[in-house]
Known about the structure:
This protein has 139 residues and is α+β, with helices and mostly antiparallel strands.
Amino acid sequence: MTTPTAAITLTQIAALADLGPDFFARHREELPPSFPLHVQTVGRPQLCYSIDDVAQMVAQRTAHLSEAICRLRVALAMGGDMCRIVTDTAGRHHVVRDSEELADLPDDVRTALLEQIHADNAAASQARTRRHTEERSHE
Length: 139
């Protein structure tokens, strides 16, 4: 029997992965088996997942990354003030926090940041288009 303290919900998993809560609802087959969490509310019980099962899934999906990289990614994500690591034209890496003003950044860092943002947006748009096309072809 899994206790509520040893369980995690789809909403919590999505928050940890920095994804919308509907992502895992649409891709439930990629998650471990779920179980209903019954609380004293009316309606359908919320689906939960064993923390151990989710941890095992994460370990399998990040096995190609070193522990240091995983810890760094978690630390950066948990900082509250999100940031990006950009590379300027000279090949130097810079950490740019989301709260920083573009006007305060050196020109080469600002240019690298904007290029990365545009590239990320283009990649996300292509992924959405590809996913939408695949969904339509399965209908």
